[in-house]
Amino acid sequence: MRSSLQTIIGKYRLEEPVFVARPTMPPFDRFTERVRPLWESRWLTNQGCLHGELEKRLEEYLGVENLSLFCNGTIALLVALQSLRIHNGEVITTPFTFAATPHVLHWNGVTPVFSDIDPQTLNLDPGRIEQHINSNTRAILAVHVYGRPCDVDALQSIADRHGLAVIYDAAHAFGVRYKGKSVLTYGDASVLSFHATKLYTTMEGGALVASSARHKERVDFLKNFGIADEEMVIGPGINGKLNEMQAAFGLLQLETVDIEIENRGEISALYRERLASIPGISLFAQPPETLPNNAYFPVLVDEGKFGLCRDGLHAVLRECNIITRKYFHPLCSHYPCYSALPSSRPENLPVAEDAAARVLCMPIYGTLQLETVDRICAVIEAIHKESGKSQSL
Ligand code: T4K
Q: pTM above 0.85?
């Protein structure tokens, strides 16, 4: 089989690598124009004009109130927990996420308790949560994985029944609307990431959407060392500020983010059309009542039907210069720092274990050409045909 796969690699290898994500850059001149006034004002950070303007514009664009900008999504999550005074006990979360999610719990002195995910959405399965609740449980930290909304109503009713806070790691969910409103308006706080790999970026950056003006006020103190004024520090805060250069970049990104989402929609539709009929490649259904952002394009690989396992497909695609990613493998529950936790036992997390072993995220970003998407699908089809052949020998 190796030699036939080599033939595919020879035939389909792309000249330049195609990455899983790429930021769409604003025109360079527009950026210099935007930041030129900073050379006059010499005001570079600490809630400058561009920072204020971006907070306002983002609130308008996203349809939310009480948004605070941050230097990255991880610090925003850390502050979300602090702002809700969650700095001990246990928090129920998903193992199927980026490292930042459980790490912020650890950094806040909280023990993560991993609960299994739903096979359709790969988000926390509400039906599995209550078995983990005890007198130490403080909150649920859920992730809208790939920007697909969690079952927010079910999570909220569990939280209400047990007096828990709900925090959403919405790192992937920029612009997503659910049941007619921003997905960021659910729960006690939601956090976005504006990292360079995200569909909306400020290079590094993030935002926290608080549940009230009073909550935002607390968040804003916390992200600025707890400083109230020159002579008053009201609590142990941190430095979570976004600077003026990043805000300038973010203001320009906002001008084109609708096009970015639209382009991703077309790419996603083409992947669906081309991959749907390949045996062993399963796609995720569009989430109901959702205006999606197509932040990621995950598929699940079934080795028996496809002919090659996920890792094999990932490796052959890489040789073709198509850099897919296994978001999220390994599960956070496998990290050495968490693997000894009772909730990390694989038998507690069968759905997450299966998804982490089979998931592959395809390249998707606004400037990815449809011809390239077509070619990626052709490679996957050719790999299936070759692998299937050798399996039937
Ligand atoms: N919660 C969740 C659920 C998250 O997914 C994340 C971040 C966070 C919280 C934390 O938010 P931040 O603190 O990061 O704001 C990337 C990102 O670094 C990370 O932000 C993101 N999630 C995660 C899913 O993906 P890596 O290790 O995969 O990134 P890297 O450097 O391998 O980049 C992936 C591809 O993107 C590269 O192959 C090429 C492209 N790329 C990358 C960078 C950095 C660019 O084109 N330009 C760039 O500047 O983690």
A: yes
